[in-house]
Structures
1.
Amino acid sequence: MFAADANRSSPQHHVASENRKQMDAHIKIPDHIYALMQRLNSAGYDCYVVGGYVRDLLLDRPTHDIDLATSATPEEIMEVFTGYKVIPTGIEHGTVTVLANGDAVEVTTFRKDSDYSDHRHPDLVFFTTSIEDDLSRRDFTINALAWHPGSGLIDVWGGLSDLANCVIRAVGESDKRFREDALRILRALRFSSELCFSIEDATKKALMEQRQLLSHVAMERFRIEFDRLLRGDGVASVLTDYVAVPGVVIPELLSLQAHMNGAQSLLDIAVKRVDAVRPNSPLRLAALLYDVDLLSFPEDDREPGHQASAIARRLRYSKAEVNKMEILVASQAYELIPEIGSVWRALKQWGEATFQEVLEIRLADKSARDPDNVGSSNELSEIQAIAESLIREGRNLSLADLAIDGNDLISLGCRGEMIGTVLDELLERVCVDGLANRRDVLLYASGVSACERPVSDLPRQ
């Protein structure tokens, strides 16, 4: 990765000169962002690129959000950027947004915060002219980094060392950081999952002790961080080691942990499922909550997907995400066998994309419960092969693809519900039995009753 200056004893330090060229090689600022920085610096103010943008550049990770910090006040920022579209998005906290080359760039005055009475927002914000003061109020050392085109990289709290050692460490006193803003508790887990970093011992102890403060966090904010946690490469170890943290808001996770299924808990199985499926939000959420209905309903009254979707709504997932997750969880009750009719009916019900996700989560579930059960994997492979064959041969059709429609059936005397029934039967015969999708064949097949006429009497595809 890179060499790091590990000194934390000094209240502030710039990167040692021998590491300067190596560090600066990682800091590639887009021209239009560099122009914003230079305009402020040329006007007599200090301007730095800060936080996660610097962290991700040093880690060679894709990065998007660009934050600038400056000694200029919001009014001075707006004066400097005459000619740009400037939006006072958080002017009371020192932030304005400058639109440049299609990017919304947040430019914030150096600041210090007062107490956080609600455990989320500072009661008062004090502007300062010190970048070191500004970095000292941030959440984690790896986010307390700043870069200036003249003075280079500034590392007040040893963030470079923690990047090199893959560690999440709170800035200063961990307890204080988490009492100030409870969302930082979940952000620590999110960064651990996304970066596959470990959490330093004092930070770990503090977040576990302060986890009940998450009850002060708005569900929308919790969901954003939890969603990113679920999509991280390190999700399995984070959920295994720290389930008590999201469990403050999702107590069903603690119930999964307490409920044993043989030698494993339902949480152990859920974590393996999550880790085995793609980092897609509804898919991983469904994998996590796949068994929650086991905890709420007796087997005869169980409604797969009901409890899981209630949790997703509670967390303020979008309606589309809730619906997709409910379908995926409820699909476990659908009998799917390696037979062409069964596979076609499933494709018709879910569509190709959701069908593939159903298979993916079923494979992950079977592997999580019994990794040695080769038979189950083989059966799912057979189902996959049948689905691919139907799609490849153009036999995964919809009613709109049939050579006849409801008007044709009305002309033959069909009425009411019979029209839909006959069309559905004809569609299945075309797709599953290979009946030719020709107008004359389908009219003949539907002349009396589509389900009574033997397929062998009619032309095939």
2.
Amino acid sequence: MKIAVLSDIHGNVPALDAVLGDLERWAPDEVIINGDLVSRGPLSLACMELLRRRCPQARYIKGNHEEFVVASARQPCDPDDPLFDLYRFAQWTARQIDGEVEVLDAWPDHFELTDIEGGSFHITHGSRLGNRDGIRPDTADADLSEKLGDPRDLFVGSHTHRPLLRRYNGTLVVNTGSVGQPFDGDHRAAYGQFTFHNGCWQAEIARVAFDKARASRDFFESGFVEECGPVAHLIHVEFEQARIHVGPWRRQYMPAIKARQTTVAESVRAYLAALNA
């Protein structure tokens, strides 16, 4: 049995197209999209349509960005809210995908495979603690037990955009990284290849080069950067550098933004100025 797990595509068509080409050569029995197919990037609907054409039997799991889009479609953020600019790209995505919102909402939160001896398998976007609670390379062993929950032979998560392979108390723990926006300094798309053979799982993180220049242009030609506010500029910087910036920016400025001591736009400009100093 061969299973491919793709996650955190974030509307990046060139990266998804390249990974699907790699899958045609590897020929998995199952393809699982482990959340964050849409939003936080330029071409969400095109990614959904591409998967339906080229991988019609794929399974889909809901990530935090699917949840953001569904919530934004049902209750758009008040423009007077100090966090309005933080949610603009989710609302923009909800408009782009229009009638697909209910499809996203119907995706399950996890997938389990427990009926093969020695091959129990749990996959979810983040961890058992939720789709925004991922497993990072620096996650301590003391924190893993609660994140993994009931023991499985293989536990697969994503969300952090940084891949890992790790063993913990007999469980093979894997983070598949990101197809569309890697944060580990490697600009290639990342996805997980899992093989069940002779009663045990083997895992590999596959890296696939894609047309990064084309993907970068998509951020602008789609209207994402212009129409989704200041955080969209920060997301594009992350894409160009393959490094996380939204998280550090949030930790530095969010209390002041909520207290209306600064705005999202002002704080992004300050963060980028310090980054480029």
